[in-house]
Amino acid sequence: MNCSLWNRNKEKEQIQRKMDDNFGGSLTPPVSPNVIEMMETDMECCRLPCFSCVLGQRDGGKSFSADGYLASGSLNRLLLRLDPSPTGYEADTVDIFGFRWVTEMALVESPKLLFGLFRQQISRLEGLAQATSCDFGHANSVYVEADEIRQQCINFLQYIKVFIFRYLESSRGLNEEPAHPYEELEAQLPSVLVEELHALTLFIGQLREHSSNILANFSIQNQGKVIYAHQFMDLTGENLTNVSLFEDHCFNLLRDLIVLAVNKYTKVRPSEVLTTCHYQCSCIKELWVLLIHLLDHRNKASQTENFWSCCNNHFRNLLQEAAGVEGVRLCDATHCKDPQGFIWWLVTHLTMLYVFDRNGITQEKKQIGSNWSFMEELLKRSSNNQTGVLEEHLRMHVQCCLTLCDLWDTNSNAVSILWEYYSKNLNSAFNIPWLGLKGLASVSKSPLSMLEITKTCCCGDQSPNLYQSQNSFQFFLRILALQITKGKATNGTHPWKQLKGRIYSKFHQRKMQELTELGLQNFFSLFLVLAAVTGIEDVVSRVSELLDLLKPSQLSIAQQSLIWKGYFAFLLMYEEKNVDISVLATKLSNNFQNVTKEFYLKTTDHTRKVTLWPLLSTYIEAVQEVFETSSCLHLSEEKLLNEGFSLLYRACRESELNTALMFLQVVLARLRSVHKRSIQLLQQPRVSSHSIPVPLVAKERHLAIATALWRNFFPFVKSQRLSQTPSSQVADIAAGFTLLAMDMPNTAPSDLQPQPLISMLQLFGWDDMVHPQLVCRYLSHLIENSALVDALTSLGCSSYQTSSVHSWFRCVLQQHMNQTVGVTEKLDSTHTTGRVNKEQLAGLTRIVYKLPEVESLLLQAQLDQSAVKVEPKTAVFIFIKAVGKTYTQLQTLGDKSALVSKALDYVGDILKYTKPYLANKGLPDGLQLMYWTVGCIVKHWALILATSKAQQLLFRIIDCLLLPHTLFQQDKGLPPAMLSAIRDNLSLYLQGLSAIIGQTTVQTTYVKQQLRNIIQQYFGRFLPSSPTGSGIVNHPILLALCESIPNTQHQTLRNMVLLVLNENYMQFRGHAPPPRLAAVLSFLHELLRRNQTSDATSETKLLLPTVLKCSMFVNEQQVKQLTLEIMQCIIENCQSSNPSQVCPHLTSVLRHFIQEYIGIYDHQVYNLMELIAGLNRDLVIGLIPTLSQMLKDTEHKRGLGRNNSQRESYRRLLILLGEEGQAEIIKLEKECDDA
């Protein structure tokens, strides 16, 4: 046990023995409680003030209990010298410690007895506090007993205050006569009270020395100290002895509370310094508030030390103790390892208690007494470079200082002290290692982030977790901003005048050259804060002067980039303050242009260019932030868009170009948006005269910005329109420039005048040389823009819809233009460079189908418009079909001629912009799409292509797609992909060309000849070597003939095909049959089998002789079978018109065939006739006369008499012919007999 505790116990034993001697072993109070009736008084009905840690519903959410000395008004009544209990102790007797006493005399007559009873109750309470039990029932009884004792002690202390206020008179003078014995006792009462109260304090001991369980229940004993301090200060303030005793007591009480706070501080982390309070419970908090009001009130009344002065004495002792200086120790059992941090923490939280008034109510605007005189000394200790300052400690100290600056009055000395430290450590990172990434200092990524940090430093909000997110230098900046703004608001003087010289004087050329990247970051943070709270132009001027001391050649790219960011942060501040930026913008843009010149030069090393790009990207991103944050763009922002950009874009690589193009896109969009808003302001009918110039000035500045964009950016964009690998951003930017030409046409360059809007559309949207990917995205932005449509209409551009449809049509056809050979559409579009985005094309398709011109075509053609929901290829087919169908419905020649012209405009020079498909000779997807589309045009626009206007297009389609020169070059031939595309789509061309032949036009003969050539060239190319498999049934020519087409068109094509087959694929060379005869016959059989002809006579005359010849001369079984089936089809076709009679055309053809071949090939002819007889006996019966006559003629010609072999063959044929044959046999035999 230490010495202090041993002395306290010794004094306590002596007081206890003295109390026992006074009581004499038994208690006989002046008035027995057994003989006096219990009387209820007002005092007994009200609850006496006391410390309480429990806040209930009746406390109304207040900080202190309603039973406490603050909320109950007890402190306020004391300081106002009012009756402590105006409604209490009004009866003649009062109940104290279970006994009745005379209210007006008890304290004078029996003070020692009462205090002895009081000490006895305290001992009982201390014993109960030390008792421990796990029995909840016992614990509850202990609590009830302890609370009863506590109320009795409170009652006694309250009685003392009331008695002194009501009944104690001032002492008589020295010359007065001896008084009544009671008066003598009354005169001695102050001294007795001082003695008893002093003995009581010794009996209780120091608050810090009690164990934790006693401290939790011991707040009642502290009331003895507080009540003594309250009453004795008012009644005996003149007594030096009493004053000395009061001061000693306050000193000890403060020391006890500080020791308790030290114990609490050991568990406080630096990051929790503002969230962890210094008191263990609300009782201690209330005790602190009572001391604050009591000492400050006494200071005003008696010119004694105020609360802060008393605390400072202890603080100094604490600091001396830590420094090893001999003196008064705070407590032997307690040692503070971090006295500076503890004092900052405690002073901060004590200052927060100043917001409570005498009634415990928070007063937000209350003026708080400061303690700057001591805290300045402490601040010097905290920022002393010689002692080695740790950021984790300094951050906590400065954060506490920031809180004090917010609560106290202004103090420029605090700023000066901190600046003295930070001016020497600007290059420091101010990091705390154990905070990890949160505590790492980093250079701001953008000017806007620098400005945001400045705003956070200038705002009044102070979050408790700032310790982790901001460093001590940023806390200093907060203090600086707070002191300046607060000083201007409260004192009317400008603290900046006092601080300006101190801050500026620290910067000179050597200092600026010593700044690292972090140092420059802190430099800009400082001056940005100064600019925010003082005059911005003066600060920017000073910053510019200081930075001019640095030579760019001595700075790293990172440092130059940071300097530019800092300048742009000032520009953003200019924008917020609505100040013109021309001076600073010109300086920045000139620096930027100098760097771009070096970046552009071909002599600049590649590595150097890579190094310069971060600096240039900093400028680009910063200018973008300026445009995005500016509300009106009327502060000379065009100064930032100088000629340097024209050099930059031409020197950028692809990755760098994306950043630069994104910037331009944002600037264009921002300019148009702001300009539109300013125009709306100008058009408002009710605008006050003083506000009109602002939109007018803004409009002028917008024109200047637009001119700068056209001059320095558009030439590069225009140069990219013919790129074969265009960026989607170029399309977006071109659309932006187009809308800019619509909004501000006068700003466009001269080469786009006089109608820049139409010129832009022609350059980027309607030119066939522009890549489809660019056109597709470009038009998607514009076609649906109602303002643009109105502008085009006002300019008299009625053909914009036709031109847009043509561009869409071209985009669909060219969507595979850059596809690599062998790559199919199954691959993701992102893997094919320059490939049209499928979604964009589908989107453009939907937009085009909403054009009034297209909707009208679909409506006239009565076609479903649901095609807008399907793929572009299907949409193209429906569109082509709609145009062709609409043409057939037109009646007047003028309407037809107009639609022909428009249709030709829709497709344009289709062979020119699809030429790459033919040139590459290996793009299957592109070739398929091209041949299919043109085939649909030939088929559905046959009547249009038959006109003289479309004659050139038709001839080019035939010559380039169907009959190219390579087709006739045997050593080359067509590429497989091209041949495949023709195979898949040839039927469309054949059907369309056959329809054109049916028209009476000048070019009919030529088209007919070309159609014959097409059939001749591709029939054999697509004919399989044998008739097996699907090669025959899927032959494109057969498919063209078998599809449902008009009868006239079908018959024309059929006749042409049969003529080509007969002349080129079924003719014998001598006795040698034609090649692939079986396959040709198989094709012919399929054709005749699938549909009948309307011109059976012509087909019979054309085909039957050749088929008969094939059957007669070719012994191949497959050929014989096919010829038999073909003959059957021919016979059935001829007989179909008049089944009851033999077709004379058949008879004629067969007769002619017999006459031609029977003389030499008699047996073969008879065998052939036998086959035909099996198909149609009547047909052969009709030929009996011819056969018989030819038999006779051949015998006669031979001159050898009867030819028995021939006659036998003929006889076999006649047997098959029934009665007519038998009759002919008899007739021939009879003729022979007669001969």
From TrEMBL:
Record's keyword terms, sorted: Chromatin regulator, Chromosome, DNA damage, DNA repair, Nucleus
Cellular location(s): Chromosome; Nucleus
Sequence ranges assigned to domain Protein MMS22-like N-terminal in this UniProt record: 224-723
GO biological process, one term: chromatin organization
Any Pfam family hit: MMS22L_N
Predominant location category: nucleus
Domain MMS22-like C-terminal: 839-1215
GO CC terms in record: nuclear replication fork
Xref: InterPro entries: ARM-type_fold, MMS22-like, MMS22L_C, MMS22L_N
Superkingdom of source: Eukaryota
Family: Belongs to the MMS22 family. MMS22L subfamily.
Functional note: Component of the MMS22L-TONSL complex, a complex that promotes homologous recombination-mediated repair of double-strand breaks (DSBs) at stalled or collapsed replication forks. The MMS22L-TONSL complex is required to maintain genome integrity during DNA replication. It mediates the assembly of RAD51 filaments on single-stranded DNA (ssDNA): the MMS22L-TONSL complex is recruited to DSBs following histone replacement by histone chaperones and eviction of the replication protein A complex (RPA/RP-A) from DSBs.
Protein name according to UniProt: Protein MMS22-like
Native organism: Scyliorhinus torazame (Cloudy catshark)
